[in-house]
Amino acid sequence: MTIHVHARVHAVCLAALLGFVTFGLPADTFAQASTDKVHVARRLGGASRFTPAVRNVQNLQKTFARPRTQRDLTTVLKIAELSHLEAEVKKAIADGAVREVTFAPGSTLQWMALRRGGTRADILRLVRWEGAKPFAGFEFVIDDLKETYTFVIPQDCGNISLVSREPSREQARRDAEAAAARRAEEERAAAARKAEEARKAEEARKAEEARKAEEARRAEEARRAEEARKAEEARKAEEARKAEEARLAEERELSIRPFVAAFGGKQRRQYDENDPAGLGTAFLPGFCDPLFGGKVGIEKALKNNWVFAPAVGYAFNTDESDRSSLFVDAEINKRFGNRAYIGTGLGLWDITHSDFITPTALLHFGLPLWKGDDQRTLFFVTEGRVLLRKASDIDSNYQFWGGLRYLFR
């Protein structure tokens, strides 16, 4: 809510308007017309006054700041159905936002506050001042943008009164300003439209000239672009041919690549009575032997990143050197984008001992530790084999190790 408060100070204070019988005032203080129910007031003051006399703004502020007056003011506004203005009314008085005015005889108040019986706060509606001269008072105005309320407080009695209640003057002013602004904007817009039309006409003329010049320029550019396109297509075709030749050459170069690997691990294996170490046992014990070894081989690139890799290697038995093994593997591996691989394969183990040679099933993987720009790669690898000669007793016939594998370009 937007509130606008104006003040004016009256020269003469309107006395509390009371019914001449009800409030015990002299008989000529009030008279009530029988037709319009307007209460006529000729004198102010007496037992029905709202406050003692208030002769200046400071006295007004002090008097209306009293707790009883504040409570009674709340009651008066509630009776007058103006409770929604209570905070603004009290603030205007407390701030001294009033001005001195005079209230002329013959003027009418919509209502006036008073004390019935000298104690109970109430209002008297439709009061016309018919005193011998104007009374002095303090006026303030509250505007909530819906209605404008003009109040007056007579100096002689403090009987706060509502002088008028009308459509909001502030809202009317704002509406008038808005209407004037709209008219000015419409006039400006009309002038702008005319200027814009003239500007567009000139622009259209220039645009037509520019269009014709642009058409000629584009035709020339199109001719040059077509020539450039054909030259670019020829260049790209030549580049593609050379790139394909380079790719095929690289594929041929990388289709077969050597590798070497070194490992450390162990084997667990069962031998019979004729084992090369001459153990002379009548049963088939399982022997766990530490191994160091390596292998060399080549990788043959297949489709879809599959690789075939035959290899030959040697596993040196550090516990029983007579049980060292020459072996061969035939790997099939799947390579990934980061060059890691996983694979399987078949092979032969212990080729140098005809009595103990065994086929093997291989499972291994490799993770790149170092990668060169020319496809050279150093892998960490692990390999595990099942010695298939005694596959029925796998837990005593296996081999595994781990190490490094270097793939050449």
Task: Describe the protein.
The structure is a single chain. The protein is α+β, with helices and mostly antiparallel strands and 409 residues long. It folds into 3 domains: 7-167, no CATH class; 178-253, no CATH class; 255-407, Porin (Beta Barrel). It has 4 helices and 17 strands. Strands 1, 2, 3, 4, 5, 6, 7, 8 and 9 form a 9-stranded mixed β-sheet that branches. Strands 10-11-12-13-14-15-16-17 form an 8-stranded antiparallel β-barrel. β7 (135-143) and β8 form a beta hairpin. Residues 1-35 and 274-282 have low confidence and may be disordered.
Outline the secondary-structure elements.
Blueprint lengths: L6 E3 L20 E3 L6 E3 L15 H8 L2 H13 L6 H9 L4 E5 L4 E9 L3 E10 L5 E9 L3 E8 L6 E7 L1 H86 L1 E15 L15 E16 L4 E12 L7 E11 L5 E9 L8 E14 L5 E11 L10 E10 L2
Spell the H/E element sequence.
Answer: EEEHHHEEEEEEHEEEEEEEE
What value does the average pLDDT take? Answer: 86
Instruction: Assign the structural class, choosing from mainly alpha, mainly beta, alpha/beta, alpha+beta, or little secondary structure.
Output: alpha+beta
Give me the count of strands. 17
The 3D shape can be described as elongated
What is the gyration radius calculated from CA atoms?
Answer: 57 Å
Number of domains: 3
Q: Give the % helix.
A: 25-40%
